[in-house]
C-alpha cells in the first residue's frame, strides 16, 4: 500500500540561531541520564495483532513525551545479541501496518523490529513528526529532550531492557514521511547509538547546505546541525527509480521543494549529490551512500526488501561517497 506525505507548514520554523554540534559521547551521557528519569515501560500487550503471534505493543515515556506507543516483534528463537531495526512509519501514522510489512523479514533474517507510533494527537502535523518537533508554535527552539527524535534512544533502551537484548546500537530506517524523520535525525546529530540509517523515498529534504534556510537546508537550523559532521554518519539514501510522479497528491510543491527536483526520485539524487559536492569542496570524508531500487515506486512494503539487503549484506552496499548504485531486493 503506498504511503503519502503531509505537507509541512513553515510557521514553526522561524530563523533561529545555533550551530553547535554536541559531541556524540556527551549526547549519549545526557540520554542515559534522561532514561534514568523516564517512566519505565509497562509490560507489553501480548499479540496485539492476531496474525502476528510475536507482536508486542507497549508504552514508553521520556521526560517530555508520555505514553508513546511502541510496536515491536522479536521473532521466536532470536538471540539476545540480535540486530535491532527501527522502522519509521509514514504520514498515516499506521505503525501496525509497518510492523506487518516488516515482521516476516524479521523472522527470516533474525532481527528485532521496532516501530514507534507517533500519533496525530500527540505529534500533530508534519512539524511534530517529520521535522522532529524542534520548535514551538511561536517559532522558539525547544530543548533537544523535547524533540520527537528523543523517543528513539528512549525506546531502544526500554525494549532492550524488557527483552534482555545486548545490542549496543540500532539501525534506523524510514520511508516517505519516515525518511523525512530519518535524514533530519542524522543532520541534527541525533542518535549516538545509531549504527546505520536508511532514508527511503523522502518527498523533500534538508540539504547539508548553510546557504539554504531550514527545513530545506541548514541555515538557521536547530542547534546541533553541523553538515561536515553529518557527512560522517552512516546514512544510505534509498531511492525507487519508479517513484517519479510529479503530480503525486502528497508531493510538496513549494518553490523551495521544486528547486530540488520534479519528483521524489530526482530530489533524492539531488540531495545525495549535494553531500558529494560539499565533501569534495571541503575535502571532508563522506560516509553516505546512495542505493537505487529498480521498479520501486512509493511503496514501503517493497522498499523494505531493498532495505534488508542494505542491512544484512555488506557486500551489497554501494561504496561510500560513490555515485548511486543499483541494488537487488531480498527474496
Give a brief description.
With 331 residues, the chain is of the alpha/beta class. 48% of the residues are buried. Helix 2 (95-109) runs parallel beside helix 9 (300-312).
Walk me through what this model shows.
The chain has 331 residues and is an alpha/beta fold. It has a single domain, classed as Rossmann fold (3-Layer(aba) Sandwich). Helices cover 30% and strands 15% of the residues. It is built from 9 helices and 10 strands. The protein has helices spanning 24-37, 95-109, 125-128, 150-163, 177-187, 227-230, 255-258, 264-282, 300-312, and strands at residues 45-46, 55-60, 68-73, 84-88, 112-116, 170-175, 194-200, 235-240, 289-293, 325-326. A 10-stranded mixed sheet has the order 1-2-3-5-4-6-7-8-9-10, sandwiched between helices. Helix 2 (95-109) links the parallel strand 4 (84-88) and strand 5 (112-116). Helix 2 packs parallel to helix 9 (300-312). The longest helix is centred in the C-terminal third of the chain and has 19 residues, at 264-282. The radius of gyration is 18 Å and the shape is globular. The model is unreliable at 1-39 (pLDDT under 50).
Give the tags.
single chain, 331 residues, alpha/beta, Rossmann fold, ten-stranded mixed sheet, 9 helices, 10 strands, globular, disordered N terminus
Question: Helices and strands in order, then pairings?
Answer:
Elements: H1 24-37, E1 45-46, E2 55-60, E3 68-73, E4 84-88, H2 95-109, E5 112-116, H3 125-128, H4 150-163, E6 170-175, H5 177-187, E7 194-200, H6 227-230, E8 235-240, H7 255-258, H8 264-282, E9 289-293, H9 300-312, E10 325-326
Parallel strand pairs: 4-5, 4-6, 6-7, 7-8, 8-9, 9-10
Antiparallel strand pairs: 1-2, 2-3, 3-5
Helix pairs in contact: 2-9
